[in-house]
């Protein structure tokens, strides 16, 4: 073993640590790409069930959206109510 091999061996990473770093990069990238949280469909379903206790509405009459503005998140809820007769 010569002197150059010694320095190269100390910088060489194990395949497990390289794989871990790559996975962390992929996970961070995927989190950045997600525009809506996983809980929004369940939230919308529960809101429809609660509103149905008081007003006759369909599943498509409630829209839930989440908008990020800097460090603030805004939850927008739109409900189409039936006309009164």
Structure, described:
The chain has 85 residues and is an alpha+beta fold. The chain has one domain (25-84): Cell Cycle, Chain A. Helices cover 48% and strands 19% of the residues. It is built from 3 helices and 2 strands, in the order αααββ. Strands 1-2 form a two-stranded antiparallel sheet. A hairpin with a 2-residue loop joins strand 1 and strand 2. The chain is rod-shaped, with a radius of gyration of 25 Å. The mean pLDDT is 76. Pfam families: MinE (PF03776). It comes from Pseudomonas putida. This is Cell division topological specificity factor.
CATH superfamily: Cell division topological specificity factor MinE
Radius of gyration: 25 Å
Question: For the residues shown, what is the average pLDDT?
Answer: 76
What is the CATH-assigned architecture?
2-Layer Sandwich
The tally of domains stands at 1
Assembly category? single chain
Annotation keywords:
19% strand, alpha+beta, Cell Cycle, Chain A, 85 residues, 48% helix
Secondary-structure map:
Elements lengths: L2 H9 L3 H19 L6 H13 L9 E8 L2 E8 L6
Antiparallel strand pairs: 1-2
Give a summary of the structure in a few sentences.
With 85 residues, the protein is an alpha+beta fold.
């Amino acid at each position: 073993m010569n002197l150059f091999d010694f320095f190269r061996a100390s910088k060489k990473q194990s395949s497990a640590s390289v794989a871990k770093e790559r996975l962390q990069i992929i996970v961070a990238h995927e989190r950045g790409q997600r525009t809506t949280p996983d809980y929004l469909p369940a939230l919308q379903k529960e809101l429809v069930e609660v509103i149905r206790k008081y007003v006759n509405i369909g599943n498509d009459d409630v829209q839930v959206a989440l908008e990020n503005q800097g460090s603030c998140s805004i939850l927008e809820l739109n409900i189409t109510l039936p006309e009164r007769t």
